[in-house]
Amino acid sequence: MTPTTKPRLTEGPVAKTLFNLTVPMIFGMVGMVAFNLIDTFFVGQLGTQELAALSFTFPIIMVIGSLAMGIGTGASAVISQAIGRGDHHKVKRLTTDSLILSFLLVAFFVSIGMLTIEPLFRLLGAEPDIVPLIKEYMVIWYPGVLFLIIPMVGNNAIRATGDTKTPSAIMLVAVVVNIILDPLLIFGLGPFPMLGLTGAAIATVVSRAITLVVALWVLYYRDRMVTFELPAPKEVIDSWKSILYIGLPVAGTRLLSPVAMGVIYALIASYGHEAVAAFGVGIRIEFLALTVVFALSTVIGPFVGQNWGARQYDRVYQGVRYSNGFSLVWGVVMFTMLALAARPIASLFNDDPQVISITMLFLWIVPLGYALFGVFLISTMTLNVLNKPFPAAVLMVIQMFGLYIPLAYVGSYLFGLTGIFVAIVLAYSLTGIASHFVLKRVLARAK
User: Fold this and answer.
1) Engineered SS bond to 1: which of 65, 88, 105, 362, CB 3.0-4.6 Å?
2) Are 308 and 386 in contact (CB under 8 A)?
3) DSSP label at 20?
4) How many CA atoms lie within 13 A of 314 on its CB side?
5) DSSP letter at 401?
6) What is the pTM of this model?
7) What is the greatest pairwise CA distance in the chain?
8) What DSSP state is assigned to residue 218?
9) Which CA distances in Å does 343 have to 337, 338, 352, 423?
């Protein structure tokens, strides 16, 4: 086995190993958020129509991104287990086959997408004067899907080795390139022509292309995880089955989340646009407050996969226990900080007194559920890596459609906005507790 794909996560102190994995991942996640905000900021300078056109593309980008994340999660899970077992041939086969699967998905989506731009976006509600602007962006973006999906899958394969620094660095480089190219190509600064939305699309594709080149270089030259050996068709199909067995439920549940959020937004909209604005601010604050836990829930996958593959079961239990303990502590700390600083934090985003008041209400109630929501994230990711994606998917569906939406409607009827926010806490907390016991039972049976 080559040194680059040895099971590096099966040795050393568990808490320190998880810490070293999580810190770089935090920067990578911040980079992903920054990438989208940069495009939105610069396109917003062009005008309301251009910003609306870019906004219409988000559902399509979310669908393709969810599929890529699903394949990446599935690939990372099976690759990390193969690394833990010391099966370098399987590591190379799974990595290569996941990239081939990504390429085939790209070919499918580009073909369908390019032929359906106008009817699809009209179906999504785009006005006739917005459709040409959307087309201007998407005719560049669709072919660039190659540079979106393959690097996402490739970076997950790199993380499976226990390296979270390289994928995060790759993402941050893409962010920097996008920051430089966006104003140059959108507004035509210096020798560059003014390209508007076309320029934004080109900047995105070029910056993503860099991530493709670097990710493939790392996988092939540094980590020796890609092979050009001609496999038996059955071997490739087996690889795809193992990846999609985990990847499809992950992608499906990610796609359901925006649907559930759309229902909640519609409910909150009945209280006025100030309530919608405040809820939007609260959700953004929530993501920032939980970035560390999101990062930890991502890196627990490679850690569990390698140690489970190496039959280091005690390290798996320790890793899950430490991660849950940290999430509980982090949730309590975030609740305390956000509750005490609710007014100044809310005032940063808007000066409307009603928006500030509702945002403060959000920050006084919803963070009560963050501690157990972290447990939920860690437990569902661990279930995916242990080849139990369906219990994880069921828990996600229960959280959104079995608890969150019904409780929000009941809470709204009885207590108004306060009831909706309490519903979030209950949904986070109950599924957090349930996921802990489901994982505990799966671990006992699997061992």
Assistant:
1) 88
2) yes
3) H
4) 3
5) I
6) 0.86
7) 66
8) I
9) 11, 9, 12, 22
